[in-house]
Amino acid sequence: MTRPEQTDASEKAAWAGADDEAEQAAEAVEAEIVDDDGAAPAADGTAADAADAGGAPTGDVPADDPAAALQAQLDERTADLQRVSAEFANYRRRVERDRQSIIDTAKGSVLTELLGIVDDLDRAEAHGDLAEGPLKVFADKVRALLASQGVESFGKEGDPFDPALHEAVQDESEGSEPVLGTILRKGYRHGERILRTAMVSVR
């Protein structure tokens, strides 16, 4: 039979062994924790160094410069202003050209209406009716008016034939370079604009 004293001694020994094992396990855990804590700063330091190395500028790149940004905006606005100015200048030239074209067209229409009167005056002159008197004065004023507006007549006997300027009602030409024969009706131009072609015979 086992004595109570022996049982108590055995239990105490068992508890003492358990306490030793617990202390050894705790020391092992603490050692692992210490190892981890010691390695962590090195790792963190390496990462920080890598971040610093990656984030640091590699060249002489200047920081944000307000003056440079303002100059860039000024250059952009200047370019826009120059473009708008050029467009407006082109618009003004186009409007002026169109306006002048309208004026020339209206003036040409009025001058064309006067050509019938000039034809009558030319026929009267051919019959000798404009030698003197009021009709001669009227004819001179009409011709002076047309001349002041830049109206010129064309189509004289012997001039080279030009289909763009002359309307041939009779063709008696035989060579390769036809010329004007009889002038049945004069042609007139106003600047570069042809008011009326000349009616001629070709020889």
Question: What form results from the Cα inertia axes?
Answer: elongated
Poorly predicted regions: 1-7, 36-61
Q: Give the count of helical stretches.
A: 3
Element-by-element helix/strand order: HHHEEEEEE
Radius of gyration: 57 Å
Could you tell me the strand content as a percent range? 5-15%
For the record, give the distance between the C-alpha atoms at the N and C termini, rounded to a whole number.
167 Å
Based on secondary structure, the structural category is: alpha+beta
Strand numbers in spatial order across the main sheet? 1-4-5
Mean pLDDT: 79
| Secondary structure: helix percent | 55-70%
Quick recap:
The protein is α+β, with helices and mostly antiparallel strands and 203 residues long.
What is this structure's SSE topology?
Blueprint: H1 4-55, H2 66-126, H3 134-148, E1 151-154, E2 166-171, E3 180-185, E4 187-190, E5 193-196, E6 198-202
Parallel strand pairs: 2-6
Antiparallel strand pairs: 1-4, 3-6, 4-5
Can you offer a commentary on this structure?
A hairpin with a 2-residue loop joins strand 4 and strand 5. The protein has 3 helices and 6 strands; from the N terminus they run αααββββββ. It is elongated, with a radius of gyration of 57 Å. The N and C termini lie far apart (167 Å). 63% of the residues lie in helices and 14% in strands. It has a 3-stranded antiparallel beta sheet with strand order 1-4-5. Strands 2-6-3 form a 3-stranded mixed beta sheet, with no helix packed on it. Mean pLDDT is 79; it is low at 1-7 and 36-61. The protein has 203 residues and is an alpha+beta fold.
